[in-house]
Design a protein that fits this description.
The protein is built from 8 helices and 10 strands. With 220 residues, the protein is an alpha/beta fold. The chain has a 4-stranded parallel β-sheet with strand order 1-4-2-3, with helices on both faces. Strands 5-9-10-8 form a 4-stranded mixed β-sheet. Strands 6-7 form a two-stranded antiparallel ribbon. Helix 1 crosses helix 3 and helix 5 (124-134) packs parallel to helix 7. The longest helix is centred in the N-terminal third of the chain and has 25 residues, at 52-76. It has helices spanning 10-24, 42-47, 52-76, 98-106, 124-134, 168-173, 181-189, 204-209; strands at 31-33, 81-85, 94-95, 110-114, 140-144, 149-150, 162-163, 165-167, 194-198, 216-219.
C-alpha cells in the first residue's frame, strides 16, 4: 500500500523491486510470497459475515494481483521473473510445480508464489513456509513493518522489548504475532529458520542476506 490506505502504491512496489534486484546481483536464489491484505482480507470479511471459504479465495486472488504488479516492476529492472499460482490461471501465471520452480531458481530467475496454498483457512504465512520447504530454502525472510519480534505491539507500547533470538516454541507459547501457528509449526518441524526484519528501511533485504545482525532470528 505504501502511504496509501488501500490498493497498490507504484512507488512502494518499485522500491521493493529495487531491493530484490540488488539481492539478485549477489547470485542469491530467491522465491517471494506476497500477501493480499492491501486489496482484500479474507479473515476480516469473514468476521463481517461473508462465507469464510469465499472470502479466503478472494484473498488468494488479491495475492495474484500483487504478484503480477511485483513481476512487472522487476521486469522493468530487467530481472527475469516467473509467477507461479496455487490456483490455476494459465493466461497470467504458471501453475505451481515444485520441479519447475527449482529449475527457474537454478537459472537465476525470481519466482513469485501467488494464490497462497490454494486452500481456504490457510494464510500466506503458511504458504511461505510451505513453499520455502518445497524449494529447500535456507531461510525465510519475513519482511514486515517493525524491526523484529517484540514481547508486545511496539506501535502501541513504547516499552516493548525486541528479541534478538527466539525459538518457535516460545513464539507459540507466548502467542507472539510473528506468523500464524501453522506456519511456525512447519518451520519448527523442518528446522527452517526465520528472520523477521523491517522492510521499510532501504537496503535491509540485502543486509540480512549478507549476514548483518538485523531483526529477530526465530529457530526451531
Amino acid at each position: 500500500m505504501g502511504k496509501s490506505s488501500y490498493g497498490i502504491d507504484s512507488d512502494a512496489v518499485s522500491n521493493i523491486a529495487r531491493e530484490i534486484s540488488d539481492v539478485v546481483e549477489l547470485g542469491v536464489q530467491l522465491g517471494v510470497v506476497v500477501g493480499g491484505g492491501n486489496i482484500f482480507r479474507g479473515f476480516e470479511a469473514n468476521m463481517r459475515g461473508m462465507d469464510r471459504t469465499s472470502a479466503d479465495y478472494m484473498g488468494m486472488l488479491a495475492t495474484v494481483i500483487n504478484s503480477l504488479a511485483l513481476q512487472s516492476a522487476l521486469e522493468q529492472l530487467e530481472v527475469v521473473t516467473r509467477v507461479q499460482s496455487a490456483i490455476e490461471m494459465n493466461k497470467i501465471a504458471e501453475p505451481f510445480i515444485q520441479r519447475r520452480a527449482l529449475r527457474h531458481l537454478e537459472k537465476g530467475r525470481i519466482v513469485i508464489f501467488a494464490g497462497g496454498t490454494g486452500n481456504p483457512y490457510f494464510t500466506t504465512d503458511t504458504a511461505a513456509s510451505l513453499r520455502a520447504i518445497e524449494i529447500k530454502a535456507d531461510v525465510i525472510l519475513k519482511a514486515t513493518k517493525v524491526n523484529g519480534v517484540y514481547d508486545k505491539d511496539p506501535v502501541k507500547h513504547t516499552d516493548a522489548k525486541m528479541f534478538e533470538n527466539i525459538t518457535c516454541n516460545e513464539v507459540l507459547t507466548k502467542h507472539l504475532k510473528v506468523m500464524d501457528a501453522t506456519a511456525i509449526s512447519l518451520c519448527r518441524e523442518n528446522d527452517l529458520p526465520i528472520v523477521v526484519f523491517n522492510l521499510q528501511k532501504a537496503g535491509n533485504i540485502k543486509r540480512v542476506i549478507c549476514g548483518e545482525s538485523i531483526g529477530t532470528i526465530v529457530r526451531g
